[in-house]
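Fold it.
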Amino acid sequence: MTPTVRLTRYLRSLGAGASLAALRFPVTVLLVLGLCGISLAEQAGRLDGYDEILRLVASLSAGAAISVAVALCFESYGAGRGLSLAASAGSAALIGGAIWWSQPLPVYAPALIIASLFAVPLAPFAGRGSGRDFWSFTLWTAVGVALAFLSVLVFLFGVVTLLEMIRYLFRADLLADLDAYLLTIALTLVGPLFALGRIPPADHAPIGFDGDDRLVRAVRPLFEWVMAPLVLATALVLHIYIGRIVLSGDLPRGEIGWIVATYALLVLCLRIAVDPFRGETAPLRLFARLWVPILFAPVALLAYALWLRISAEGLTVERYYLGLWGLAVMLGMAAQLVPQWRGDIRFLGCVPVLLLALSTFGPWGVAESVGRSQTDLIRSEFSGRLGKLPDGISSLPEADRRRLESRLFALESVAELSRIRPLLAPGVADAPEWSASPVSVASVRTVLGLDRGSAPDLTDTVLRRVLPQPLDLASYDRGFISRQVEEGGPPDSSTLGLRLEANRLAMTWNGTLDGLDLAAVVAELLAEPNPASVDRPAGLSDLVSHNGRHVRVIIEHLVVDGVSRLAQAATLTLLLRSAEWSDATPPPSQPDDRPPANR
């Protein structure tokens, strides 16, 4: 088969897939076209406003996913074309509009997009079909989508390679930006349309499970001899750790919530994956018998760890969704007690999707829950001081100040900072900063007076500069370029030896020991508006050593301790005068009072 014939068949299959997708999912195809157009316009620099572009892309993505799910649901029940089209368009408008108007976007957009995507394989089996039908439909949908994008990327790789070959061989700048546009079109248009065309039909009995199918026989060993033993071994390790906690009375270590959540996700995903052949081999039989019991103790540990954190520091977005996932796991375990739900993997997949969608609105939603929790903590801990602004906050100890700021950041993450307005004095509650949408922690810090008298930043400061070119030697005749020095490091007497002692630099050259005071230089660098900037050359500092020798110091890299504000490490370029180091004059026992810098 010639390459031309192969290309023709490939393009014909792409066209057939796109035509089938347009017939089955017209609303989705329109949204995909809009997403591709926005991506191309942004690629060409025709659009402004990063936040608006991101919000629009998220809205179109979620709308496209939910429109597919709704169309499949109506298709499975044999509904009319017009009704299916109206329902798809309405659901896309509802979810897309919710994301467009939601605040904050990083909280609501991921929840709605994930819920919409995972609703696609579940929608055709809402009230009909069986768990085996759902398993087969999900498998073939996932394989079709993966193959669609893989084939598009392989074809795109070939086209881009051909363009680069032409540019290199013929020294021709042939459509310099074409490869970028091709990549955008492939990922936002061709790939999605081809993937939509690979979704199995849902208007009749779905694909039945065939244990002898080559694809099924290919994936089964992965579950039998890799995933099942791995999950069982992980369960053993986790239960040993839980036993140690029970016996010793120790508190769970940090990040235990995410460890347990990931473990529970593996268990439930494996339970869904092995459903058609869970009794065929020893590892799968053991897992099918134990998957519920091995979740009891880890979920209890997750609940205990969350209770400790929430009671001490309140609810945050991360803790809310960890608790929501724990609730979904517990509901999946409880469903095994109901005869008609026991063994139905659709329930295990449906519960997390529903809870995720429910988390985006209502008094049980993430914003309301986090807002209430953090506001109650602020009211109980700081309401007396907040009512006496501006003097009530200025005398807060540093630990209390940081605790209040952590509460404010948690409220900002769900756009609920306005909840603390009723706790403030009337004059402060009417400040113009509250009119912003959404209110930021920076403006609230100003209103509360947290900027006044705040402690210095306790994080290390890292300064980077570019060595000036050309380097001005002036009257110096010896240069040591980009020498690294650390606090407490031993000087090397065989060449130029350097050691940091607080903000002093001990130097040894030609057997002569001397020192420089860098305190004024470090303080001047830290006083700059953006000391970490790397877009400017390093400054020259002409210093006089403790014994009167002249040294030009250029600081290229500097690490300053956040607590002591003393230099810990540096990369320096030093210029010396050889004649001044010919006499081995011993340094004084204490630094003299000579000014450290002559700039």
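The radius of gyration is 33 Å.
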